[in-house]
Amino acid sequence: MKLIVGLGNPGREYKDTRHNYGFKVVDAFADAIGVDFNKEDFDGVYAKFKVDDEDVILFKPLTYMNLSGTAVQKIVHFYKIDVDDIVVVFDDLAIKPGEIRLRLEGSSGGQKGMQNIIDNLDTQNIKRIRIGTGEPTFDTIDYVLGKPTKEELPLLEKAVERAVGALKEYLNHDFQNAMSKYNGGDNV
Questions:
Q1: 88 near 126, Cβ under 8 Å?
Q2: Can you tell me the mean pLDDT for 44-51?
Q3: What is the pLDDT of residues 172-188, one digit of tens each?
Q4: What is the pLDDT of residues 1-29, one digit of tens each?
Q5: Could you tell me if 171 and 33 are in contact, meaning their C-beta atoms sit under 8 angstroms apart?
């Protein structure tokens, strides 16, 4: 079983903020493959579907960003999902808007939702897709909880499309293929 987690904050006031690009990616992926987030449990909402007879879960924790790991830990333990079968999608300030980065493991890079997942699962060996939202030009909290500018929006929409493509590549082939095809800027 595979688990794809999109990070964000619940509530209308956060819907279109930079910090919700993990949610945006899994929502766009669900739309692209025709599944709905029709289950609510484990402090989140999720969709369950199959790819080549393997169960896949798309999951959005509703615990707010900084406590994402508590929800992820609950669903991982319930379904006995191996950490090698988890991918987390989240926003990253250190990457330019419109770029995505796929990694097999590593630190959270200061992203508190990812750090909480690392802490709760007790490993940094978690695959991730980071969506670039750019360096803050003002207070970091106000920046991540703010909405992208008109100039950033088309770049971020492209990043969402590329992340959806990377998830499809991961499920149809493997994460290494997705990394080689989708890492970096405009290489697809």
A1: yes
A2: 97
A3: 999 999 999 999 655 43
A4: 999 999 999 999 999 999 999 999 999 99
A5: no
Question: What sign does the dihedral 31-75-11-145 (CA atoms) show?
Answer: negative
Q: Report how far residue 30's alpha carbon sits from residue 34's, in angstroms, rounded to the nearest whole number.
A: 6
Which domains does the chain show, CATH number per domain? 2-182 (3.40.50.1470)
77 counts as catalytic: no
- Taking the CB of residue 142, how many other CB atoms lie within 10 A of it? 9
Tokens of 74: 């609950």
Residues 5, 8, 9, 19: which is the catalytic one? Answer: 19
Picking from 21, 17, 2, the residue whose alpha carbon sits closest to that of residue 101 is 21
pLDDT tens-digit series, residues 64-117: 999 999 999 999 999 999 999 999 999 999 999 999 999 999 999 999 999 999
Contact 93, 136 (CB under 8 A): yes
Tell me how far apart the alpha carbons of residues 14 and 7 are, in angstroms, rounded to a whole number. 12
Q: In what order do the strands lie in the sheet with 127-132?
A: 39-41, 44-51, 54-61, 2-6, 86-92, 127-132, 100-103
DSSP bridge pairs for 87? 4, 127
CA distance 36 to 80: 23
